[in-house]
Amino acid sequence: MTQMETPSIDSSRIAEISLSSSREEIERREQVFTVEDLGVAYSGNVALAGVTMNVYANTVTAFIGPSGCGKSTYIRCFNRMNDLIVGAAVTGSVRYHASDLYGREVDPVEVRRRVGMVFQKPNPFPKSIFDNVAFGPRVLGWKKGLDERVEQSLRQAALWDEVKDRLSESALGLSGGQQQRLCIARALATEPDVILMDEPASALDPIATGRIEDLMHDLKREYTIVVVTHNMQQAARVADMTAFFSVDMHEDGRGRHGVLVEYDATTKIFTQPADRRTEDYVTGRFG
Amino acid sequence: MSRQWQSRLFVGAMILSLAVSFGTLGWLLATTLIQGLPGISWQLFTAPPSTVPEEAGARPAILATVYLAVALLAMCVPVGVATAIYLEEYAHKERWYNRLLEVNIQNLAAVPAIVYGILGLAFIVRGIGVGRVLFAGALILTLVVLPTVIIASREAIRAVPDSIRQGGLALGATKWQMIWRQVLPASIPGIATGSILALSRAVGETAPLLLIGALQYVAFDPTLFGAFTALPVQIYTWVKLPDPAFQTLAAAAIIVLLVIVIGMNALAIFVRNRYRQRW
To answer: Are the Cβ atoms of B279 and A126 closer than 8 angstroms?
Structure first.
């Protein structure tokens, strides 16, 4: 453990992002998700309303905002995990490439194969490291080349060198950071197109967090990454595009729900936000 | 009275109640062992019952108890686990019929075994005409322990964290794949423990078997669809006889039954400790 490894706000990195990806450049990329007037309600209580935005291919898109702003609720719309909650209702539309993600003919199981997810707390299965990564391919019936697939996924998640000699040991024996990279490897093994990360580093120490962030940088070459984070510095370090969510009162004045305030290139959000609420949040005056 | 004395008095009361239950158990075990050990012989395991105590054994009863246990497990574990999976993973908890089901299962677990015996006599033996056979006995014992197996299996399934379910589903597993490959393997220790404990209770049940007419003298090896007796019934039969030699046989049979039941409980504890899942 050296001081050097400790991630901090690295201004050169922000500069690098801004050089490589202006908003205009990003918006020329393929649209992976097209969200229009999306709302989510739990048992009739609106949690999120009126979200319209596009998510672009080979881009890291970050969702930031205070607690209760619906950012976790929102990210779960992209792989239909909200379907699992009794009483959850999604309104508006989410298009995934050319198809309506909530269309009648769409199978949520197939959606989740293509849109992988990594959760806040690492959740390895109580099985061996190998079996964890092989779980996805196995449930999909991909029996051929399983060993190679597991190795490749672990390499992509920068975990192979640490675990190659103990693939048959329990995944629960790994450190928190390793467990989270294992969960990323597990998600990669089903050949997804998008990887959703719901506060993937919030349970990790700074070094492990740095590794996960490096991984996001590497992975966006092949995948589209959407990340929820409560850590603004993290968003500044990893994201090309950042969406700031906030909390609004319902129209009737009873209860609150999340809204999308501003969505732009990360550098823009952090240096010249258009909305006062964004500015207050990113400068630390609120939230 | 000072607070110190209050607390000492309370500790004393607790030790006394412990002594009462342990003392009774110890005394029972001791008298049974003293009386029954001379009766333990190969003959007990190989000979059928007889009117002559010197020739009498409990072979049909012991065999029938083993058959009952196996048939019982084969019926109550699949049904119990399937019910538990439905209630935990599929049932919409707010629906009235699921709540009714839940309350019913809790209540059924508290119904005395003899009530199941009456039910079995009316519906299984006579109603669907299975007759007074070993299979009918196994069916009734299944009903007796099913609620216990369901409740134990539900606890085990509920102990699997939701993060595991979500992780499985997020990888494109179907709900059934998630249950079959993640939830069930993780809950097997709990399910096994509950099932074995339920089984050991069922093996000792006498009343429902007597009620549906387990015979008191069976001189041949039992079959699934034949007349039968069972170890507790055999014990009950021998205890009623005046000849002290039969009392010894009864005590010996009690030792056999105790060894079976304690053995199963020990197995349950072993399974629980060996395979306990730490998350």
So the answer is: yes
Q: What's the CA gap between A36 and A29, in Å, rounded? A: 18
B chain contacts of residue A138, beta-carbon cutoff 8 Å: 181
Query: Chain B partners of A125 at a C-beta cutoff of 8 Å?
Result: 164, 167-168, 182
Phi-psi category of B156—alpha, beta or left, where left has phi over 0 and alpha has psi -120 to 50?
A: alpha
Query: Which residue range forms the structural domain that includes residue B16?
Result: 3-38
From A126, A172, A190, residue closest to B172, measured CB to CB: A190
Reported ipTM: the value is 0.85
Is residue B251 within 8 Å of residue B44, measured between CB atoms?
no
Dist CA B231 CA B236 (whole Å):
9
Mark whether B49 and B123 lie in a shared domain.
Answer: yes
Structural domains of chain A sorted by starting position, each given as residue range(s) with its CATH number in brackets? 3-282 (3.40.50.300)
Mutate: best of B95, B98, B171, B174, partner A, most A CBs <10 A:
B171
**Strands of A99-100's sheet in order across:** A99-100, A88-96, A31-42, A45-56, A256-265, A241-249, A60-64, A224-228, A194-198, A115-118
| Pair B198, B77 in one domain | yes
The answer to whether residues B196 and B217 belong to one domain is yes
A4 pLDDT band (50/70/90 cuts)?
very low
The percentage of chain B sitting over the pLDDT mark of 90, rounded to a whole number, equals: 37
Co-location of B60 and B25 in the same domain: no
Looking at the fold, whether B117 and B27 belong to one and the same domain comes out as no
Same structural domain, B20 and B119: no
Name which of A76, A115, A120, A135 to mutate to probe chain B: the one with the most chain B Cβ atoms within 10 A of its Cβ. A135
Same domain, B186 and B202: yes
Tens digit of each residue's pLDDT (9 = 90 or more) over B240-267: 888 888 888 899 999 999 999 888 889 8
Residues 178-207 of chain B whose Cβ lies under 8 A from any Cβ of chain A: 181-182, 186
Same domain assignment for residues B111 and B222: yes
